[in-house]
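If your schedule permits, I should be very grateful for your opinion on a structural question. I would ask you to consider whether the tokens describe a fold that such a sequence might reasonably adopt. Thank you for your consideration; the sequence and its tokens are set out here.
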Amino acid sequence: MPDRLPDRIGKFEILRLIGQGAMGEVYLAKDRAIGREVALKVIRPALAGLDPGGELQARFQREARSAGLLNHPNIVTVFEFGEEEGLFFLAMEYVPGEDLGALLGDKALTPAEILEAIAQVCEGLQQAHKHGILHRDIKPSNVMVTREDGTLRAKLMDFGVAKSTGATATQTGQVVGTLAYMAPEYLRSGEASPLTDLFSTGVMLHEALAGERPFGGSTTGAVVYGIINDPPKALEAARLKGVSPALAGLSARLLEKDPTHRRPTTAGELAKLLRSGKDPAWRPTGEEEATTALSRQSASALAAEASATTAGHRAVGVEITAGHAAVRLSHRALWIGAAALLIAAGGFFGYRKWKATPVVVAPSMANMHVNDVVLSEAAAIAMKGHPEDALKLVNAVIAATPQNVPVDPDAYAVKLVCLYQKNWILGFGAALTEARFRGVHAKDLLANVAYKDMLEKDKVKKKLPEKLRQRLLDGQDLGGWGESAQPPGNAS
């Protein structure tokens, strides 16, 4: 909350505070020149002073340019961007209502009204896409809902992280937006397209109807892992009272991992489908129904494959996930390699059966920002005493890294800490071998504070063979296969 409300900012008379966030405040204000009420978004003075790179100002200008190009009843109109005595402000249409997130929290909308609101958002989004603008931050709090003469009206706002598609229809770069609503392909590569906005709309649709997001997780990293690897939660029929039960299939299509095969192709098409779904008797026909059936078949096949994989690993008694066919070592090779490594180091310790969760191999997660988020979460989870959960996240990062790209050393450092915590010493040795083939050297691992601290404390705990511990502390690689050799069992 600001210390006191300013009387005016530029030509705008401040009436009252109507909202605030991490970046600034939003005031109800009046344009003194024409008497029009506006919502005036202002960067906090303290933040503006701590913005030497100009990113906050650039975001405001970006929002003004993006939304300023658009004139549509389902997009909040931006009137003006300006600066007054060091304050940056954005004057935009005042919508006397509540954001969709608040209305969902109050359970103030029926399922049919939710469908209508999101259909209108899609119509605004279609206009943005038509003008080559990707929103990249679709979520309930960025949708304002009001009623005009009893008729619901939804407006999409906050184009602060929007991006022009240009001639290529996609844009690659730093991942921005709200992680819980990001598409899997966007998280992996930073590449946005109109279909990534539709995935975000699908997350919002599921959340609005089901009362929860489709990908669970108590931490940011767990949510990211779920978006990339896990099927969404099913949209239960009990949540679809008064509307078509076929909406469950439409929701599943929107949340497919593959952006091109099953998601509706345009926001305009999605708007029509959502309005059709307001009729309880509506059923998709033709291509729509075939796509939904294919989605169910794909999900069933994936579940069966995961079940068979898990059973196979249980029979073997150990699982190492390398994340790429060219470096996926055979179980026999890993057992022999790990045992030989530990014997050569001066000892052979007992082991516990390793039953790590299988990881779905994903394309490249090239965006280092996302990697850092996931690995930070994994390290925190491990330190809280949940190494099994942390391993899921670490393995996701390793699996998403292409063969020709070195794995982030922190991924293997955290993985080794988790294995050590669980006393999985054979797995620890195998992970060291795996790391070597993924371009991570012993000296690289020492940059991770938790890993180095683990080795130092092992001088007392003595879980690891002394010679192995000392070589790792000295940053010495452990030998084995040569730099260019193929791992045993993977001649291809």
Remarks:
- The first strand starts at residue 8 and ends at 9.
